[in-house]
Amino acid sequence: MQTIYILWLRQIKRYFRSKTRIAGSLGQPLLLLLALGFGFGPIYQKAGGGNYIQFLTPGIISMGILFTAVFSGIEIIWDKQFGFLKETLVAPVSRLKIMVGRTLGGGTVAVIQGLIIFIISLIVGFRPMNFHLLLLSFIFMALIAFFFTALGTAIASVLEDMQSFQLIMNFLLMPLFFLSGALFPLQGLPKVIAIVASVNPLSYGVDGLRGTLVNGAHFGLLTDFSVLSIITIIVLVIGGLLFSKIEI
Amino acid sequence: MIKVENLTKKFGDFIAVDNASFSVNKGEIFAFLGPNGAGKTTTIRMLTTLLKPTSGRVLINGNDPVREQNDVRRSFGIVFQDPSLDDELTARENMEFHGVLYDVPKNIREKRIEELLKFVELWDRKSDLVKNFSGGMKRRLEVARGLVHHPKILFLDEPTLGLDPQTRSHIWNYIKNLNKEEKMTVFFTTHYMEEADKVAQKIAIIDHGKIIVQGNPEELKQQTKTTSLEEAFLAFTGKTIREEEISPIERMRMRRRIFRH
Questions:
Q1: Residue numbers in A near B49 (CB within 8 A)
Q2: Could you tell me the pTM of the whole model?
């Protein structure tokens, strides 16, 4: 337990010590929230969709969590290059604990990032409709965070250095985000996009968050919750296996 | 304390360590010397559970690094060739992190951290982030960190690389002292031959992955009829610069950049 705690604590300390990173990773989601939210707002309203900021905010929160989470996982590559991973790997500690500690740490950081975006969105004009479901929306934030941190860790276990970073950015994160229903409703989409969105894990996160914050879940909250929980466990196990095979 | 029999490691076609055998007794200071790319670091990685050998047998304090990983890990401390501190943490936090991973009880941990930091003269800087430390300070901190759990064996992979003579002699005095008082076994690599001559009780020279010769510094000098260990080393390993020998590893590293396995 203490091992997991100290690994978790390390991530949290690192997060709060790099203020520039916090600010930097808030920039993109906020820009999207303001530009898209106010830019498409009038059209969305005219098309009968209602208030676009209300619709968009859960999507942007999910995006903030997605990016922070995957990057915390990918940080292992950084650790490999700067040698700190060796210090952890020569210690008499099971690889699974190392993986769990890091995932909890990275996931917590991603949840905090999501909460900051949530608070800022309140200033911008977002109003959550279900206060009694607020706790459940935090659980969805945590699920998104832990799933994608574990995914990042699994990817980082098989990658050697930061050169493949762009690849992950363009072929994983961007498609995950754009094809998740974060920006547009999933109803009445062309078949291909609808299918892609339905196999995209982030769709379920966005949907769950939207369902709890402002209603209108597409898949249903129970489906969202079950899908996310199951794939999180699967990816944790796979990540743990890959991680335990790291040789440096 | 360390027993290595017919240890071999292949990376594809490249043989990094070739049928190496040697042993280190308890309380001995053992120098593992060799030109660049000779297989020193690869050997250390196998002894310290980071890399699985292709074949051969290793015993560290009576345990096998492949099958009894955690027993082996508990028995040694290590200072790596490349820095392995967390720059975003303070000196004290780095030590604390290590102590917790090695399950050192809190009261003992705190006492030892204070002792060790005072010994390497970093106690005044204990709350500074490591990223503000100089190379020598980081090295001293790494040595101190490797000792928090009172290991029976200390591995040092070029511990004094790039340090000034003052820091080098400070670190070595400390390690020699620990060796004498705690009977700690020390296994180290270095490119400074006078350092090995002065400190080591036993030396093995490795080249092209093979152990060429073993013995104490005097024996090596007598065998080659030379007066310094540096000359003896050159007599054993030749004067060619080893760039060609590193390139297979380097090439492999580049190939492995994208996918690890």
A1: 89-90
A2: 0.85
